[in-house]
Design brief:
four-stranded antiparallel β-sheet, 641 residues, five-stranded antiparallel β-sheet, 5 helices, mainly beta
């Protein structure tokens, strides 16, 4: 801040004439703003100057800042508004008669002074005990200590004897250990006694992870023993109560052994509808073996009324596996079957009946008499880690007809994070066609709760193509360039919004041109400075100007100073004249420099002689670019076939 400016107009009537200036001291660029403020705090004028490294500039108050000064006790406020340099500001006064110089008094903000940069000064008048502390006082020697109960879990979880360690319990003492080991120091061995129904150790995970995860490299991961009660009791409200997974050859996902003559190796019971008494997940969903005499069964399943006798499901094996050691091992003879199903009556749904037999060629083979279906499913059919193929001998490839009977013809749901459908083809991967003549019929429709309704990508070609009209109800964001035959906006007509449209064409240019305009009022000298956005010169180059006087002729109007520091000057008009100005610039930001739009270019070799719009040149459809691209693609598909 420079204080004490006083100058009148004309300059000869003042005792002094005043200058102000700046010096950049670090070799970096800096933009400086200076304001002239009178003794009442009113801003009289504002100026902005951009300095190069080590550059010094000095200006006369009258010529640069205040055109017709008649001021007393004016102060100049200087602020660096841009760049990384540092600036020294100064002011001088020169006696008009003797040219003797005087230096203005300068004042700095408190935050800039050394004695204020690291805090205040003065004596400590009190020491107060904060949260978790006790003691303190306002005079004499005082003592501050940790209050009883003042050390919370948040306090002791800081660094311990080494960085990152926390206090842990071993059951009898505490010690500093790595936090990745959990809340206990291992090995941990504790003992206590509780009453019936009470927990000695309880864990609850309210998130989506596990409550307990036990891993053992060479022994039993979890050993549970009980002298009179249940060794392990598992409950689940929405998932499997017990799930066993085995990755070793010859081992079971769940192994049960009964050492009593009346017990069960594995006993599963379920009183609820829709679930299973026993569910195993390993090499086989359920595996049983019997070494007894004829008539004994490896697995016997019985269900009363309409319940399911056997339900098998496996994520990495067989839901149900059946083996017979009869004539051919797997069983397609009259004596032994891997899995045998018999349809005794026609299924009461369009007279459908089916039988299922195991065979070496297929895990399940179904046969049915003429006129009946080989198999029927009412409900969900799940295929895990396998392929579903439907072959029709009268067609090549896969042919299938599915009727939705009033609902979805085909519905695929993936509740995980993978794809619902993955289709691969050397030609058209998915062909969607709607045979409805209604205006709202959709050949392909996509919705997403939070992602993309439709997502397409291509490595070397086009990610998408539309032949015909396209409607976008919402915003269109394009990160690259847009090429078009023409363009306009169309809105409801402001005067007849219910019955008419209003359209305007876009402004076209062979350059990446930006347009800026406005209206400015000239000062009493017929001059004005136009401030442009701070990003103007970073975005634009090759400036063009237009000036138009408003209300009266301005034959002498001209650009007094070209654009520098995101501003330009106008002069040559009358005091108070309003001038309409327009400035254009060519983009030179990094994206524009890397993606210049070619104004004229030749067509590719394969499309020469074709037209974007052949009908406008009196040419047939076969002369169009789109027609040629489509038919060449079809010919390539035919050759691959």
């Amino acid at each position: 801040m420079v204080l004490g400016v006083a100058q009148t107009s004309p300059e000869s009537a003042s005792t002094y004439r005043y200058n102000y200036g700046f010096v950049e001291t670090t070799g970096q660029t800096a933009t400086v703003q200076v304001k002239a403020v009178d003794e009442d705090g009113t801003v009289l004028a504002t100026d902005s100057v951009t300095l190069g490294g080590y550059e010094a500039r000095q200006y006369n108050l009258k010529d640069r800042l205040i055109g017709s000064p008649d001021v007393t006790n004016v102060r100049l406020e200087v602020r660096v508004t841009g760049g990384s340099g540092r600036v020294l500001a100064f002011g001088t006064g020169l006696a008009n008669e003797s040219n003797d110089s005087s230096v203005f008094e300068m004042q700095f903000a408190d935050a800039l002074l050394a004695e204020n940069t690291s805090g205040g000064s003065g004596d400590i008048t009190a020491v107060n005990a904060g949260e978790g502390l006790a003691g303190g006082g306002t005079s004499g020697d005082v003592t501050v200590s940790i209050a009883d109960g003042g050390v919370t879990t948040g306090k002791i979880s800081a660094a311990g004897s080494t960085a990152g360690q926390v206090l842990m319990s071993t059951g009898s003492a505490v010690s500093w250990k790595d936090s990745t080991g959990g809340g206990f120091t291992l090995p941990y061995n504790g003992a206590a006694s509780t009453g019936p129904g009470a927990d000695l150790f309880a864990l609850s995970n309210s998130g989506g992870g596990r409550a307990v995860h036990a891993v053992a490299s060479g022994d039993t991961a979890v050993l549970a023993e009980s002298e009179t009660g249940t060794g392990v009791e598992a409950r689940s409200l929405e998932h499997d109560a017990v799930r066993g997974i085995s990755g070793g050859d010859g081992h079971s996902g769940i192994y049960g052994e009964a050492q009593s003559g009346t017990g069960y190796g594995v006993l599963g019971r379920n009183a609820a509808y829709g679930t299973s008494g026993y569910l195993g997940v390993a090499e086989a969903g359920v595996y049983g073996s019997s070494a007894g005499q004829a008539g004994n069964m490896a697995i016997l399943a019985e269900a009363a009324d309409s319940a399911t006798a056997v339900s098998g499901r496996a994520e990495d094996g067989y839901g149900v596996i059946g083996r017979a050691t009869g004539d051919d091992g797997v069983g397609m003879s009259a004596a032994a079957y891997g899995v045998r199903g018999m349809a005794l009556v026609a299924y009461n749904y369009d007279s459908e009946a089916g039988a299922i037999l195991g065979s070496p060629a297929g895990g399940i083979t179904a046969h049915a008499p003429a006129g009946l279906l080989a198999g029927g499913f009412r409900g969900n059919v799940e295929i895990l880690d396998g392929n579903l193929s439907v072959y029709n001998q009268s067609h090549s490839g896969v042919a299938a007809a599915v009727s939705g009977r009033g609902a979805n013809a085909v519905e695929v749901t993936n509740t995980g994070s993978g794809r619902a459908i993955h289709a691969v083809s050397a030609s058209t991967t998915i062909w969607a066609e709607s045979t409805s003549g209604g205006g709202n019929a959709k050949a392909l429709a996509g919705t997403a709760a939070a992602g993309y309704g439709v997502f397409a990508s291509s490595q070397t070609g086009w990610a998408g193509r539309f032949d015909g009209k396209v409607i976008i109800n919402g915003n269109l964001v394009v990160s690259g360039t847009v090429s078009k035959g023409g363009g306009s906006f169309r809105i409801d007509h402001p005067l007849h919004p219910d019955n008419r449209y209003l359209s305007h064409s876009f402004v076209e240019s062979p350059d990446m041109k930006n347009v800026y305009d406005g209206v400015v009022t000239l000062d009493d000298r017929g001059e004005a400075v136009v401030e442009l956005p701070e990003y103007f010169e970073a975005l634009n180059r090759d400036f063009r100007y237009q000036l138009t006087p408003i209300g009266a002729p301005g034959p002498d109007l001209y650009i007094a100073r070209e654009i520098e520091g995101n501003r330009f000057g106008i002069a040559g008009g009358g005091p108070g004249m309003r001038v309409s100005w327009q400035v254009t610039g060519i983009r030179h930001d990094p994206w524009a420099e890397a993606h210049r739009i070619p104004v004229e270019e030749g067509k590719p070799e394969g499309l020469r002689g074709t037209y974007l719009h052949p009908e406008l040149y009196g040419r047939p459809e076969e002369a169009g670019e789109s027609w040629n691209v489509d038919h060449r693609s079809e010919e390539g598909t035919d050759r691959r076939r």
